[in-house]
Amino acid sequence: MRKLVWVALAALIVILFFLLTLPAESAGAQAAEQNKSGVSLGIYSSQLADSGNGTTAVMQAFMYGYDGGSLRAFCQPEMLQQNIIILSHAQAPGVGAELSEKLASALARCGFSSRVATADDALSSKNAAIIAPTGAVPSEFVGKEEELAKSNNRLIVLVLLSGRQIDANGRMSTLAESGFETVGLSPGEGEKAASDAAMLAMIPKNLQKSLVAFSEGNGTIAVAAGTNFTYCRLAYVSPLSCRHADSGLLAKPQGSLNGPDEVLAGKNAQFEFSLPDGSEIGRDLKFYAATYCGREGVSHKEIAGGKIAEGFASRFTLSFQQGGKCTVNIEDQFGRLHAAAYVRSLALEAKLVQQQGSRYEYRLLFGGEGASGPVEAWIDDGQKKEYSASNGTLIIWAAPSEGSHTMHFSYSGLSAQSDFYAQGGGLLETYLRLGVPAAIFLLAVFVLLRAGRKAKYMITFPEFAETPTEMLGADAAAIVRAYGQADRKRGGFCLPAYPEEIGKELLAMMGKKEGATLDPHSVLRALRELSQEGVFAEAEGAFVPAENMSGFSAQELCMLRLLHDCMLERGVPFRKGAVVEVKKGGIEFSLFRGRKSVLGKIGRNERVVLFESREALDEFERSLGAPDEENAMIKIAMGNGKVRFAAALRNEILGLLP
Question: I need a surface site. Which of 54, 229, 400, 449 has the fewest CB within 10 A?
Answer without folding.
Answer: 449
